[in-house]
Amino acid sequence: AQSVTQPDIHITVSEGASLELRCNYSYGATPYLFWYVQSPGQGLQLLLKYFSGDTLVQGIKGFEAEFKRSQSSFNLRKPSVHWSDAAEYFCAVGKEYGNKLVFGAGTILRVKS
Amino acid sequence: GAGVSQSPRYKVAKRGQDVALRCDPISGHVSLFWYQQALGQGPEFLTYFQNEAQLDKSGLPSDRFFAERPEGSVSTLKIQRTQQEDSAVYLCASSSLRTNNYGYTFGSGTRLTVV
After folding, report:
1. Best of A34, A37, A38, A102 to disrupt the B interface by mutation (most B CBs within 10 Å)?
2. A94 with A38: CB under 8 angstroms?
3. What is the pLDDT, as a whole number, of residue A41?
4. What per-residue confidence (pLDDT) applies to B102?
5. Identity of the residue in A49, A102, A105 whose CB atom sits nearest the CB atom of B41
6. Mean pLDDT throughout B75-79?
7. Contact with chain B for residue A17, Cβ under 8 A
8. C-alpha–C-alpha distance, residues B32 and B73, integer Å
9. Which residues on A lie below 8 Å from B51 (Cβ)?
10. Which residues pair with A87 in a beta bridge?
């Protein structure tokens, strides 16, 4: 069965500092991988996705993620964090087109000025 | 409409009460999903519709949960005889098969509190 692990429940970074949020997945075949962001009281917004091809994926709001098959990881990065990036971030894996997603438990990002 | 609309935004139910949660997907979107997000957790899949057909209901936690989409547009998630463990945010998402894979748009959710 598919599963997703986000090892960090909370992360605090200073504004302007770099960010890396970790995600490990378990799935036998090539997974479809996603990062979503959720602000309080809001729905989930897709940041980026990986299906195949280039393992470094660019997303919205300056985020990128790198797929590493050997480590079963899909870590999210941003070179310089802004206060508006404070939110909860979810990694998710899917099996095939249009099917359900399996989400990790999320990482809450706090940004200090 | 421009986005996925869910109503009500908040619902407080007494234990044992029945509730109905509504989802208005983006017009023309074929696929519709329901997810349950407990406090401090990621969303968990409940059920999936393609038009009016419920193709996957493997995530519904018990027979007290029922979902329908009779005309292939608006969907209702019904929970009978609510229990405290049903307290969660219920998220709806829709997608069009004509867009990119997994082109979900999520609604803002309904927060259900069972007291």
Report:
1. A38
2. no
3. 79
4. 67
5. A105
6. 98
7. no
8. 9
9. none
10. A109
